[in-house]
Design a protein that fits this description.
394 residues, Alpha-Beta Plaits, Rossmann fold, globular
């Protein structure tokens, strides 16, 4: 592909990603994979160059652009080399008019900036929210030590906080590594590893992972428990939950069982677990404002209405979790969001609704105290953004 053709491909992809963001369609990664799946003529260098151009445009535009061309023109206004690829050639984009409208550059829509500011995320912290994220993996302690894996894996770097975290060179195809296929490593942001420590899972305990998804934190719990005890991993999403047991088999995690929940009838399905769990982990559905580094188009998908729906869901899940915790046990609430409406405010409202529960601020290797919990941010910790709180049952 010529540079001009790459630019036009990026415009086409951005159009599709913008449409998907507005209509609740596929994520950008999926859109890009589908696009190149039907264009076998594009070599690996072409795909990489187009992908980087697309994500540069997404990161540059806080508001949803009018279209893909406007997004790329915004980049070209500050990049003469890119502007030169708008040359009107056969497969290239038309030349840029001097008065052509460009997308508005920024970190996020104004209402999101205001909500973050109200939650204590100041202007100096905002740029870090959309920087490129590093590639972190968790070493499976059931199979290896971090030091042994670091010594055997080219380019691996021991990062400073999570006890089993390694950082790999950007672009590493982790799923092609023998260590991944053998269940020795799993892709997991260091921040995700850190907040999972708040439940303090120990061998022999009974743990419920209420929003397990595909099981990243579930697998970490099994390793922390040394395969002793029991973990019930639950979710309402059949497709995501179905991916957990093959991963558990690969990891040698033998104490995990899954339970698919019917939305609206979760309490009935969990009645046999009432007051039986030493710990319940609620990694709740959220806005993902802490993960824009990985999913920058998430800024284009979030609306005030969607945020309100997520807050309602979080409250619902917390109320399902509470009866499962045995007296003196712990409920750990996690969101990959930096908005207090989804974090500290949810926890405060939970305590108001449930007599006798108390906050027990977890001691973690990173993060800062925030309204009874711990907050991690890209700017201060170099991780994705999280809020985690530990609640103790009466």
């Amino acid at each position: 592909m010529t540079p001009a053709a790459r630019t036009q491909a990026a415009i086409d992809l951005l159009d599709a990603i913008i449409d998907a963001a507005r209509g609740g369609g596929a994520a950008a990664d999926t859109v890009i994979a589908r696009y190149f799946g039907t264009r076998r003529y594009a070599g690996s260098k072409d795909r990489r160059a187009v992908r980087e151009l697309v994500y540069a445009a997404i990161r540059a535009c806080g508001e949803v652009p009018t279209n893909g061309r406007a997004a790329l023109v915004a980049l070209a206004r500050e990049d003469a080399e890119l502007a030169a690829t708008f040359d009107g050639s056969g497969y290239g984009a038309a030349a840029i008019d001097s008065d052509e409208a460009a997308a508005i550059r920024g970190i996020a829509p104004r209402w999101m900036i205001d909500a973050l500011a109200a939650s204590g995320i100041d202007a100096e912290q905002l740029p870090a929210l959309i920087n490129r994220a590093p590639l972190d993996v968790r070493v499976n302690a059931l199979k290896a030590t971090r030091d042994s894996v670091a010594a055997s894996l080219s380019g691996a770097e021991i990062v400073g906080y999570a006890p089993d975290a390694l950082r790999l060179p950007s672009g590493t195809n982790v799923d092609q590594l023998p260590l991944f296929r053998d269940g020795v490593i799993e892709v997991q942001d260091e921040g995700s590893q850190i907040v999972g420590l708040a439940i303090d899972a120990r061998p022999g305990q009974n743990i419920v992972d209420l929003c397990a998804g595909a099981g990243g934190k579930t697998l970490a719990l099994a390793a922390a428990m040394r395969n002793e005890g029991a973990i019930i991993a639950c979710d309402t999403d059949r497709a995501r939950l179905s991916r957990l047991m093959p991963r558990a088999g690969r990891a040698g995690a033998e104490i995990i069982a899954t339970r698919l929940l019917d939305p609206g009838h979760e309490a009935e399905a969990l009645a046999d677990l009432a007051a039986a769990a030493d710990g319940v982990l609620v990694d709740a559905p959220c806005s993902g404002t802490g993960t824009w580094r990985r999913n920058p188009e998430g800024r284009w998908r979030l609306t005030a209405e969607r945020l309100d729906r997520l807050i309602t869901t979080q409250r619902h899940v917390l109320d399902i979790a509470a009866p499962l915790v045995k007296p003196g046990g712990a409920l750990v609430y996690i969101v990959c969001s930096l908005l207090d409406a989804e974090g500290a405010d949810q926890v405060a409202a939970f305590i108001d609704r449930h007599d006798g529960w108390r906050l027990d601020t977890p001691t973690l290797p990173a993060g800062v105290a925030h309204r009874g919990g711990i907050r991690l941010t890209p700017a201060t910790d170099g991780t994705d953004g999280f809020f985690v709180a530990r609640l103790v049952a009466p």
